[in-house]
Amino acid sequence: MAPTGKSSSSTEARFRTLSGRGLSEDEVELGRIVGVFGVRGEVRVHLHNREGSVLLDDPWDVILVSPDGSRRTTRLSCRSGAGKRILGRLDGLSDREVAAGLKGTLIAVARADLPPPDSGEFYVADLQGLTVLVDDEARGSVVDVHHTAAGDLIELSLGTEVHFVPFADPAIGKIDLDRGTLTLDPRILAEDDED
After folding, report:
1. pLDDT tens digits, residue range 75-110?
2. Which DSSP helix (H) or strand (E) runs through 168?
3. Could you count the other beta carbons within 10 Å of the beta carbon of residue 184?
4. Rounded Cα–Cα distance for residues 80 and 153 (Å)
5. pTM (2 decimals)?
6. CATH number of domain containing 189
């Protein structure tokens, strides 16, 4: 299901500038560039779903969003490295200094190019805007998912309060995309009140 196209033999990166800022609603963030690897322009990549096959099977047309919000497209090929590393090669990029300048860049793809998630799976971007249920009562919404070195945090807006809950926390109950809801264990709110 990966987009196809001809690869470049050029020594210059083939980035095409896009209009707009940040991600658009029809794009899904899959990871980010976290560093450089070696001297030939490869980058270290953090994928939000390391177990998935997206970006690891074949080269993909990707949207790169720099920390300042500017957007470019190129092709990205990823492979497993030593340990848990994921290494990426951007079409035509062979300069370590240029690669180092991409640290912090988001990697996204057009939602239309993604395979549908398997049963019981979802893309993290699908969580934004879900209604948060506590004891079957709508109490707020999912604002965002933040990716940190310690793990993913779900940002919840509950009334006038903002809560950050680890994605792996047992307090995060059922996620029902069809209903547009995320169930939250009420005990986590009680724990926050004790702090």
Report:
1. 999 988 777 788 999 998 989 999 999 999 999 999
2. none
3. 25
4. 25
5. 0.71
6. 2.30.30.240
